[in-house]
Amino acid sequence: MSRGLGNIMKKEIKELLTPSTLIPIIIFAIIFGSLGGVFGGATDELSQPPKIAIINDGTGEISQFVELDMTARSEVLYNGTDLDQAIQVTTEQGGVAVFVITPEFDDNITENKSGVINVYWILEGSGVLDGLSTDPAAAMLSQVSYDLSKAIIDSHYTDNSTVILAPINATQNTIYKGTEVPGVTPGMIMGVMTGQSFIVPLIVVMVVIYAGSMVVTSMGSEKENKTLETLLTLPVRRTYIVFGKLAGAAIVGLVLAAIYMVGLGYYMSSLTSSASLDLSQYGISLDLFDYVLVGISLFLALLSALALCMILGIFTKNYRAAQTMTLPVTMLALIPMLVLMFTDFSTLPLVAQVLVFAIPFSQPIIAINSLMFGEIGIVLVGIVYQLAFALGAMFVAVYLFKKDILLTGRVRSQQSKKRGLALWPTRKRK
Amino acid sequence: MAVIEVNNLTKKYGPLEALKGITFSVDEGEVFGLIGPNGAGKTTALRVLSTLLEVTSGTVTIYGYDLVKQPDKIREIISYLPEDAGTYKNMKGIEYLHFIAAFFQDERRYQMLERGVRIADLGERLDDRIDTYSKGMQRRLLVARALMIQPKLAILDELTSGLDVINAQTIRRTVKESAKEGTTVLLSSHNMLEVELMCDRIALINDGRIVATGSPKDLKAEYHAANIEDVFVEVVR
Questions:
Q1: Is the sign of the CA dihedral A286, A288, A291, A293 positive or negative?
Q2: Of the candidates A226, A237, A413, which has its C-beta nearest B84's C-beta?
Q3: Do B103 and A236 touch (CB under 8 A)?
Q4: Other CB atoms within 10 A of residue A9 CB
């Protein structure tokens, strides 16, 4: 009995644990391990003193105390009087904020008011990690406020309990990718951008996975049901068979994309409706032409996925094998989604940028964030790359459609046959 | 007049040589059978002639068209019915015939469909989904698909494999009628009786080589055998 169980288990494992199942998962693990290094680096930065700039326009010892405390708790990149220069230096050197202690700061406190500090947050991306980058500086400001409370008590600058509890009134401004958004915290911008950051990647992933698996399973079914052979002997060019299958799946994919877009758009708008910040007044928005470019990029991502899946489908033997064949494309779609949800493309290390850019499904996600800031160049390059990728993949698919491999699958070499034979007990080989 | 000419055809799957230089010809309107045991190379030969597989070496011409250089031309005049061929199971029988007819010229479509419906002889069941059909019904639909276009050459692999006697007989009769109407038929079978019943001439194939060719009557006489099965045993001995 137990021997039968083991026998069946061995057969199942052998069937399921094939190179086509293992290799994509190993690659997936390696890629995510590498990305973990990138993200780990980003989170390590959070434990370092924040890089900031200080402009102290105050005239008394209270503002002097604040400046010294900030300096002690941070890495100061700039300490001067020119705001524009401070922002430029901080941005260039990877800093996160410029703190301007106002001229009235000392008087405010002695007159029983909170001292005003104008904060200019530097936000270089809308990913989750980009948003976190300002947190250490915010924490530092809270600590300085706490230290100032103690100093006020010790030095009797005021007895006003409200001022003692909240001696600093920070006015928030954000420099988002070089554009000043006054009166807004990075968190508010992140709230608005979340919709853009999540909807497009989710649509790309859903459409690529669904439409891609349709093509692969269609090929698997054609082979399993033996309808492919009939199709290939009909008076129709192989190119038309490939394009016909791709076009059919592309149309279904676009319909799916539209449905997802409406559904997710409604979902995200209901989640972010409280964040009524209108970034378009600062020029951070998409116009009709931008939407057309994003649409083209999305279509080319879909076409690339379908052509890749068609190639994979050529190697599939049946419906069951087709299920695992979609794994590599699924992972290629998931990588840019996960990476670009955490961090902005522009803030990625160069190697990671090249890797992410090389995946044709990244382009719509990169496009929507880039077009917000009028960065059209990278979007056009991306579209040209996607077009070349899709055409190349389609060319390979058509080429393989004319080859024996379409019907015969992989042919085992003599060496692998010998290896297979070696598994038999010696007495059976005779 | 020979409409199929196969000269020294070889076919390799990697290191495996499935066809080892076969040569034969088929005349117009003839029913020609390739007979042999499983793995002899029958299906490979038919797949090569149907433009599905590439030629390793040798030459094949079908109605004057070169198989390697003009596969598109050949696909316009042939119809191939694979062994265990399937259909799109989500379609109805009549939809499947429409689907196939749509690959051909407009003016012939109605005529093709009419012929397809007649050959399938499935009555009202043609309006049902194919996944509700029995194996015999599916095979009749596939034979109808293959012959409704009145191809110049019908290539039929294991025509009645797995069918009961009644269905097998109906399908054989249909193929014979098509041959009388001018379609040249090249079929394969390991059912020696079927071949004897249907074929004008046969080629016995074994281990990728043609070992004998002739009419069933001539071969039986030559090898002093009672039937083709005995001829085959005698030839490969």
A1: negative
A2: A226
A3: yes
A4: 10
Give me the CATH code for the A49-184 domain, please. 3.40.1710.10
Measure the CA–CA gap between A297 and A305, rounded to whole angstroms.
12
Judged against a pLDDT cut of 50, whether residue A426 lies above it is answered with no
Residue A75, chain B, CB below 8 Å: the answer is no
List of chain A residues whose C-beta atoms are within 8 Å of the C-beta of residue B15:
413-414, 417
Domain count within chain B: 1
Give A208-267 pLDDT, tens digit per residue: 888 888 888 888 888 888 899 999 999 999 899 999 999 888 888 888 878 877 877 676
B102: which 2 tokens?
Answer: 């749509």
> How far apart, in whole angstroms, are the C-alpha atoms of residue B159 and residue B177?
15
Q: What per-residue string of b and e applies to B120-157 under the rule 16 or more CB within 10 Å gives b?
A: bebeebbeeebeebeebbbbbbbbbbbbbbebbbbbbb
Helices (H) and strands (E) in chain B, counts: 9, 10
Residue B11 lies in a domain: yes
- Give B43 to chain A, closest Cα distance, Å: 12
Residue in chain A closest to B53 (alpha carbons) equals A404
Tokens of A209: 């996975």
Shortest CA gap A236–chain B (Å): 7
Rg for chain B, CA atoms, rounded: 18
CATH number of the domain that B164 lies in?
3.40.50.300
CB contact under 8 A, B86 and A225: yes
Domain range for B213: 2-86+150-236
Q: Evaluate whether residue B138 is within a structural domain.
A: no
In chain B, the residue whose alpha carbon lies closest to the alpha carbon of A416 is B15
Tokens of B24: 């034969």
ipTM of the complex: 0.92
Interface check for B131 against chain A (CB to CB < 8 A): the answer is no
Judged by CB atoms closer than 8 Å, whether chains meet at A233 and B13 is answered as no
The answer to whether residue B179 is domain-embedded is yes
List, for residues B191-213, the tens digit of each pLDDT value. 888 888 899 999 999 999 999 99
Provide the token pair at B223.
């090898």
Query: How far A223 CA lies from chain B's nearest CA (Å)?
Result: 9
